[in-house]
Amino acid sequence: MNILNRTLISLFIAGSLQHGALADDAAAVMSGSTLLVRNATVYTMTRDATAPLKGTDVFVQDGRIAAIGQNLTAPTGTTVIDAKGRALTPGVFGGLGHIGLEEIGIEQTTGDYAQRLGQMRPEFDVTLAYNPESMTVGVNLANGITFTLLTPASASGGSLVAGLGAPTGLDGSAPLPARIMFVDLGGDANDLSGGSRAAQFMLLRQAIVEARAPNLVMVHDERLLSPSGRQVLLEFLKGDGVFVFDVDRAADIRNTIKFAREEKLNAVIRGGAEAWRVADELAAARIPVIVDPLHNLPDSFDEVGSTLQNAAKLRAAGVTVAISLGDTDVDDAGKTRQAAGNAVAHGMPWMDALAS
Questions:
Q1: Other beta carbons within 10 Å of 123
Q2: Per DSSP, what are the bridge partners of residue 242?
Q3: Residues 58 and 114 in one domain
């Protein structure tokens, strides 16, 4: 919630303002002015909140919420917005993507989110390429997106271990320390694992052996990892980080659950097109799932069981669910709200979707 509080200057009122006007107000607050939103239905999203606060005012000063209540007063010169009962929420999570890491998707030279060194380099830290002055940052901030998770990608010539990422606010601040490691599994990663998904866990286990026994002599010294890669992976194996596994097929998710349990990893499933099929197992393992509620039609044989009810079924089973678009287009993060709405339309509780 720290990022949310720090970047709440881009509060959005659903359906009440045009993006340009909101961007002007957000910019004014960032420059030291004040903002008062009156008569809003406020969703604080704090842990103890059980219902929205209706007919409520929110006073923002110097980029922070200074007061929440009714009939608030504000200094002369304060920008005042009448919400007319519309919803007011904290800034929206932009999901996992490449905001600030890419300018234009069709121009590869502007993308810094993937390495093609031909080696497994878990120490590849994509946050070092983050540009807080990127046009994509301002565009998404104007759309109410106030924080995102900088995410590396596996690419041809790279590795199934994509690298490290971290959350960042879109307020010009630096990303948080990179304590999230991304791993690509399933059919999409076959080209990175010798043509078979069976080799993926083989490679991961070899990497883990190298990290845990760095002085182990291997035949012809055929190591997957560099010395720095072994050190970084070892820190994660000790529990100082989270592994995000991008995987869709139910059978592959089961193998991932087993792998995480055996290696004692802090695991999260990303994508999870067929996660609903193993919802009880995910709940028992306390493994969260990051889903795209708009994903319905299969793009591959890994996703034959795709359904718009995925998020709802996972939540009903007790799985922690987060929402992120499968398409990492830097201009589409604002559609996260639409995706959450689709999740609600197909059975996910309203407040759960907002929190996700």
A1: 19
A2: 180
A3: no
Q: How far apart are CA 145 and CA 233, in angstroms?
A: 31
Which residue shows structure tokens 């291997």? 218
Question: Which residue in this structure is represented by tokens 């026994």?
Answer: 213
Domain co-membership, 105 together with 76:
no
Where does the chain have alpha helices with state H?
2-6, 19-30, 135-142, 198-212, 227-237, 250-263, 279-285, 310-316, 336-345, 350-355
| Domain that residue 30 falls in | 2-89
Question: Rounded to whole angstroms, how far apart are CA atoms 136 and 332?
Answer: 10
CA–CA distance, 257 with 282 (Å, rounded to integer): 7
Domain total in the chain = 2
Which residues on neighbouring strands pair with residue 125, listed in sequence order? Answer: 164
Q: Please tell me the chain's helix, strand, coil percentages from 3-state DSSP, rounded to the nearest 5.
A: 35, 20, 45
Taking only the tens of pLDDT, the chain with its 356 residues reads 333 333 333 333 333 333 334 444 444 444 557 899 999 999 988 877 778 999 999 999 887 889 999 999 988 889 999 999 999 988 899 999 999 999 877 677 778 898 999 899 999 999 999 999 999 999 998 888 999 999 999 988 899 999 999 999 998 999 999 999 999 999 999 999 999 999 999 999 999 999 999 887 666 778 899 999 999 999 999 999 999 999 999 999 999 999 999 999 999 999 999 999 999 999 999 999 999 999 998 989 999 999 999 999 999 999 999 999 987 678 788 889 899 999 999 999 998 999 88
CA 349 – CA 328 distance, rounded (Å):
25
**Burial class for 312, CB neighbours closer than 10 Å (0-12, 13-18, 19+):** buried
69 shares its domain with 206? no
Tokens linked to 289: 């799932």
Where would I find the beta strands (DSSP E) of 70-215? 79-82, 87-89, 92-97, 145-150, 161-169, 180-184
- Same domain assignment for residues 203 and 287: yes
